[in-house]
What does this fold into?
Amino acid sequence: MDDMIRRIGLMLMAGIALCAGPLPTAADATRYGYTAKYMGVPEGLSSQRAYKVCCDADGAMWIATLDGIDRWNGRTMKHYGLESAMKFSDASGRTTSLVFDARQRLHAYDNAGRIYRFDAMGDRFEPLVFLADYAGEGLTVNCLCIDSRSMLWVGMSDGVCCFDPQKKTLQWIERGAFVTDILELPQGLAVASTRGVRLFTCDGRELHHFCPADYVQSLCMTPDGKLLLAGTFSRGVRVIDLIACEVRQIPQLDGLPHTPVRTMVAQDASTLLVGFDGDGVYALDLRNWQTAPQFTKSNGLLNAMGVYSICLDHEQNVWVATYTGGVAMLEPEEYPVALYRHRTGDTAGLADSNVNSLAEVRRGELWVATDDGVSILDLGTGAWRQILTGCVCLDIACDSSRDLVAVATYGNGVYVYDTQRRQRAHYHTENTPLQSNYLPALEYDADGNLWVAQLDDRTMILDRGTGRWRAFEVQKVRSLCECGDSTIVAGMVDGVAVVARESGTVRRLFDATALAGRDVNTFVQAVTPKEDGRVWLGTDGGGLCLLKGRMDSPFFFTNCDTLLDLDYGDLYQYHKAHGNLVTMVCAFKHYVVPYGVVELGEDGGIAAMREKPELNFLTNTGVYVVEPRVVEEMKMGEVIGFPDVIDRYRAAGEKVGIYPINESSWMDMGQMEELEKMRRKLEQQS
It folds into this structure.
């Protein structure tokens, strides 16, 4: 098997799913592969309103809520109260939070200025300082940072101060700003506020002032220590270069939600998780600045979107504290998935979400055949490039010995590129013996010969040595793969052909004749080999019985080779208004017989003669509106066509209706010439 590619044996209906290994993040990529577990009041959390979540050195999770501090040890939840003479109500807006010092000692604090330290021996929080004794009553504490010298940097509603717990002294660093976050950096202390970001030395001297016009909510330093990211109230994320001491302009970040960035945390060396108050968690790729939703309600991974805190535990589970949903724990699955989808108007991502084939080439690129050309993903940078835009590309094959990539298209023949994306050849009916430009599959064998399947004709082989084409008597092939170094396996519309390359002998397997009477579909859409010489087969179709229990309203059911130009809403309402069990869409057909027609009598003589008669009749288009009851009453394993299902209900007296349409509204593509007519008609309409 060609070692230049690794084919992925998945049927991809909408986009690409990348399984296992490190997951690149791009503008049109969404990571999946997490199992969500929620912790709220029913699970022992003291309140659904969670402000902070963090992990201690022993792996226990600490959660600050409206009603105090909770500790989860992996099995049970324990609640810790914070001693206070002051009574708070929900309306008063009490908040609690947590922070570790340089020695990994846990501290808790509330917005009234009470700071506590956790006593592990006594298993309780002990009061450390009440800041109102030093700064005066009426203060509001928003954040706390304990630096490497054990100094307490306190962000308040009217500035930032530094408290020395040994000397019991308080020094104001800045007054007048609403401070939201403080972060210790190698250069000093970064302070986020309504006035942007200020960088101070440890003794309180201001070094730099960044983003003065931004209301900054949160701060995060990248793992390499070179950049400081500032999450704003309504302008996304700003990037501060700590080496050059300047703000970088990153256009890719303009697409982030315009809601408050409450928290940011590094997931790994190249990925940052960004928590929004109202939009869940986004993933930010630090290599190319591409972003995508990561944990949201829409992908089923969060139960509330007001994110206040994010933390990674020792097993790389992601914990998310939310304003109304308690805490979500996102546990990575064994085989994580990144999903890439096409976005309308986006030329820098996947060209089309209908993916037909893909191959990873040796130079670290993923080539993706879509209905709108080939999209090429650089797995190192996450950048996309496009070739063959406008072509429906069905399959990709690679020849590692020559660094070539061949692309089979629907209507445009075969293109051959090198791995530098330079076109080397274009084979089609005008310059080769190919009988069709509609080519569903191709494969390079071990000798570098190119096998090309034609939609309704023989398979062709381009000999690497002679450069000549020759036909092979294997027809209507839909997929090709090499099994070992001497055998080609072809999946066909009726079974499988196993071809010995040297002798040319062909064995037919898995065809309808051999499997007569068994509930097996022999239309083989995909083949992929195993190392032991066996081959996996993927077949077409799937019975309506698979919908049992899933349909609760009338649904459209259609053949795959028909296209109708009609108002489907009107069809749906027609079906409901007439109380039909099934409504069949039928097209009026007018047909002129191009010959004289003779009708025979019972005695064998001529009963009548009509010259080129005109016939008018209704034709079943293969489109139906069906009640869920039809699916529920089907017998699992029964082989039956849908017209026979309709006849069964008609015989039982059930109501089956007709929805008539004009002949011009029906386009059928069951035959190649009809498909070509449809293509031309659609091109004219566009």
User: Anything to note?
Assistant: The helical segments are 132-135, 568-577, 628-632, 642-651, 672-685. The mean pLDDT is 87. Residues 597 and 610 are 5 Å apart (CA to CA).
